[in-house]
Amino acid sequence: MTPEPSGAAARPLLVVEHLKKVYPTATGGVEAVRDLHFSVPEGQLVCIVGPSGAGKTTLLKCIAGLLPITSGRIELLGEAITAPPKAMAVVFQEYGRSLFPWMSVEANVELPLKSAGVSKPERRAAAADALHAVGLDDAGGKYPWQLSGGMQQRVAIARALAYKPKVLIMDEPFAAVDAQTRADLEDLIRVIWKQLGVTILFVTHDIDESVYLGERVVVLSNSPTVVQDDVVIDLPAERDQLTTRSHPQFAALRSHIYEQIQRAKHNRGTETASTPTVLRRH
Ligand SMILES: Nc1ncnc2c1ncn2[C@@H]1O[C@H](COP(=O)(O)OP(=O)(O)OP(=O)(O)O)[C@@H](O)[C@H]1O
């Protein structure tokens, strides 16, 4: 099964319509997200960037059904999201806290399937496939604390994949690992995305990472949040850390997104991007 990733004609899998999120507080509420509007076609790999405090985590939690929205609508496969959807899996930055140290790697990966009532033989097979996909065939019997940080994050990714999600949501998943491990994990995400055809929403602080990974980068404004820019990453689909990062278009896209983030720091929910930005090749 190797579905073609994304494509202009693909129908939107995920729709975020006029999303507003106000956190209730004793003093009347914090308007974190003002009016977010975008959609994601099936199979796309979208990176989300924005200044610190822009509402990236708030957006992901709303999409993941972990946080009630104030108004607007979020739809997955045409259904409004009001609770964590079965077709979605989330990977957070804190892999150390998301894995249970007293359970083997295999048991950690199987856990969500066990909670979903999947039979033991099916769980075993799904966990073995997922560990294979992240390059950890031999780690099933180990414990998380016997693995490096990068390997633990691979386990967290395997656990999400074992669930066979249609949408994989990742909130700064590589922020806590060293640069070399991070590069390896970025390449792993591209491979998994291409092999499994899963739709990925990937939040990162790292502009270079967003350009390297994404087919598209959505730039959020400062909170209260709107979409500040929506950039098409028209780099060749085959990416590698040396060639892609030294491509002239990579540098142009990186500069454009950097400028947008600088602008975003002063844009508190006023200017909204309406059409995707396509940078002209130099
Ligand atoms: N539980 C909460 N109660 C009140 N305000 C909150 C709460 N969580 C977040 N906020 C506010 O909402 C806004 C967006 O926060 P959020 O954590 O979503 O941003 P972020 O872009 O993920 O930040 P960072 O890049 O620093 O991780 C911020 O102004 C933050 O202070």
Automatic annotation (TrEMBL):
What superkingdom does the record give? Bacteria
InterPro entries linked: AAA+_ATPase, ABC_transporter-like_ATP-bd, ABC_transporter-like_CS, ABC_transporter_ATP-bind, P-loop_NTPase
Recorded hits in SMART domains, A to Z, give:
AAA
Which CDD domains does this entry report, sorted A to Z? ABC_NrtD_SsuB_transporters
The ABC transporter domain covers which part of the protein? 14-247
Record keywords: ATP-binding, Nucleotide-binding, Transport
One annotated GO molecular function is:
ATP binding
- Keyword ATP-binding tagged: yes
Question: What name goes with this protein?
Answer: ABC transporter ATP-binding protein
The keyword Ligase is annotated on this UniProt entry:
no
